[in-house]
Specification:
Helix content: 25-40%
Structural class: alpha/beta
Distance between the termini: 7 Å
Largest sheet: 7 strands, mixed
Strand order of the largest sheet: 1-2-10-9-6-3-4
Order of helices and strands: EEHEHHEEHHEEEHEHHE
Bound molecules: 6-phosphogluconic acid
Shape: globular
C-alpha cells in the first residue's frame, strides 16, 4: 500500500479480488454508522462486479437497506430505463431488488435539458443534506465510487471542460461527452464528490494501464484532481498497474 498526496493505492490480484475488496470497504463504511448512510454510485463497466457482489446473500444481508440511500455521481442524458443509463444499470443489477424505492436517488433525465436536470438533482442533494453549503465537518456521502476513463475523466468531468473548475455548484450539465456514449451528461462537481468519508476508485485491466500511469505521475487530469476530504482510495489490479510502479 502506498500513501501519496493523500491518496492510498491498494493493489489486488485481479478484477474478482478488486470487487471483493470494494464490497468489503463499502460494507465497512455502512457498518460504521448507526444513522442514515449515503452512497454515491458510479457508471461504466468497472463497478458491475461490485454491484453483483452486493446482491449476493453474503453481502446483501449485511446492508441495513432501510437506512442506506443510493445516489449516482454522473448520468448519461438518456431515458431512465435505457441500459446505458448509469442508474438503470445499478438498479437492474441490485438496487431494484433490495433498496426501498424512496432510497434510490437517480439523476432525472426527463427534463428539458441537462442543466435543468442538474438543478433538480442539486436541490435534491441539498434537501437530503439539509443545507446549501457543504460543511467539511459533515460530509455529504459516506462512500463515493469512481472510475477512470481513457482520457483521465472521472464521473462526467472531462479534461479541459469548464465543469472541472466548478467550485460553487454541486451538479452541472455537460452538453457534450468526450467519450462514448456521445450524449449530454449531468455530473456532480469536484466539491460535491469530494464531500465524503471515502472516495473509492476501481481500476482494473490492462487497458487502464496507460491512463493510470498518467494519473499516478500527477498529470492535471480530472481523475487526479478528484479527492475526498476524508480518504481517497485507489483499488487497482495487477493488470492495470504501471510497469514502473513499486509498492513501498
Ligand atoms: C460514465 C462513468 C464514467 C466511468 C469511466 C470508466 O458515465 O461512463 O461514470 O466516469 O466511470 O468512464 O468507465 P469504465 O468503467 O467503463 O471503464
Amino acid at each position: 500500500m502506498t500513501l501519496s498526496e493523500n491518496r492510498q493505492i491498494i493493489v489486488v490480484s485481479d478484477a474478482k479480488a478488486l470487487a471483493k475488496a470494494a464490497a468489503e470497504r463499502v460494507i465497512a463504511r455502512i457498518g460504521a454508522k448507526t444513522e442514515r448512510v449515503a452512497i454515491c454510485l458510479t457508471g461504466g463497466s468497472s463497478p458491475k462486479q461490485l454491484y453483483q457482489l452486493l446482491a449476493t446473500d453474503a453481502y446483501r444481508s449485511q446492508i441495513p437497506w432501510d437506512h442506506v440511500h443510493w445516489f449516482i455521481g454522473d448520468e448519461r442524458f438518456l431515458p431512465a430505463d435505457d441500459p446505458l443509463n448509469n442508474m438503470a444499470m445499478a438498479r437492474h443489477i441490485f438496487l431494484d431488488r433490495f433498496a426501498p424505492a424512496a432510497n434510490i436517488h437517480p439523476i432525472p433525465t426527463d427534463t428539458a435539458d441537462p442543466q435543468e436536470a442538474a438543478r433538480r438533482y442539486e436541490s435534491e442533494l441539498q434537501s437530503f443534506y439539509g443545507a446549501k453549503e457543504l460543511d467539511p465537518a459533515r460530509p455529504l456521502f459516506d462512500v463515493v465510487l469512481m472510475g477512470v476513463g481513457p482520457d483521465g475523466h472521472t464521473a462526467s468531468l472531462f479534461p479541459d471542460y469548464p465543469a472541472i473548475e466548478e467550485t460553487q455548484r454541486w451538479v452541472v450539465g455537460v452538453p457534450k461527452a468526450h467519450v462514448e456514449p456521445f450524449v449530454p451528461r449531468v455530473t456532480l462537481t469536484l466539491p460535491a464528490l469530494g464531500s465524503c468519508h471515502e472516495m473509492l476508485f476501481e481500476v482494473s485491466g490492462s487497458d487502464k494501464r496507460k491512463i493510470l500511469t498518467r494519473v499516478l505521475a500527477g498529470e492535471n487530469l480530472p481523475a487526479h484532481r478528484a479527492r475526498s476530504i476524508g480518504e481517497t482510495i485507489w483499488l487497482v489490479d495487477r493488470a492495470a498497474l504501471p510497469e514502473n510502479f513499486r509498492e513501498r
